[in-house]
Structure of Alpha/beta hydrolase:
Amino acid sequence: MLVASAAALAAAALFNTWRSRKAEREHPPSGRFVTVDGVRLHYIERGEGTPVVLLHGNIVTAEDYVWSGVFHRLAANHRVIAIDRPGFGYSDRPYGPMWTAREQADLLREAFAQLGIDRAVVVGHSWGTLVALELALSHPDAVSGLVLLAGYYQTTFRADVPLVAAPAVPVFGDVLRYTVSPLVGSALMTPTLKAMFAPLPVPELFDREFPRVFPVRPGQIRAEAQDAVTMVPAVYGMEERVRDLRMPVTIFAGTEDRVVDHETHAVWLHETIPTSDLRLVPGAGHMVHYAAPDEVADAIEQTARAGRVGAPRVPGLAAHP
């Protein structure tokens, strides 16, 4: 029985590795790479003008902003850079750190320097909002404004965290993410995507272009699990700090979001940052940038203008959007 179990796990590991490599051959990187402190990051860049950096959420990659239409809308007037966060898409996530929102923000700040990105408008969706906020709080010289989409901002109980945390555990988690986790994730992928877009349908372009094997590759599974484990601690340390933001902040949320409750998070953050602008999209779910791409792009444009004319970063002096 022990030998048979070991053989089954080995076969699963071989199959999942082969499937991951096949998916990467069929969906090669569409952008360029920059190496920061030994970490290779993949990014997509288009356009010229005021820089706008787009940070995606969990499961998806930088191309999420391309499929939503936001990327190309912005590229007409801005230098737009969509980055695969560490461990997602074609970006590395080396062993060692947990790659918290703060650690990801520190890495991206160095990437900004290498890429010549100065005072960017930073846009984050879902988990990416935590990295965007950390960039603004820890490296305010690098950020001129924030646009936050469907984010998680204050400490609440998350029943989903224990369900997805196991692959983040050393050794045991490594076995899981090469054997069982990809198979379970594949079985759950369709209902997961439906829940993300609900109550709206999964858009045809996303359904056609999104490589469904990418989220269940062993490496990305580890990134997703680590992000789930570090999400609540990230906001616990951030809840008081956001009150000190001194830059334009626009907060988007769908009123029918089934992943993150908009009243608990988006409305709360707006009340916590009095100078922020809250935009609730009726009938939209978690993927609010697909439901209202023009409105999101317009808000980013307005934030860029406000950041250009805003006052210098002097303590106690706020720049109003």
User: Anything to note?
Assistant: The beta strands are 32-36, 39-46, 51-55, 79-83, 120-125, 143-149, 249-254, 277-281. The first helix runs from residue 2 to 26.
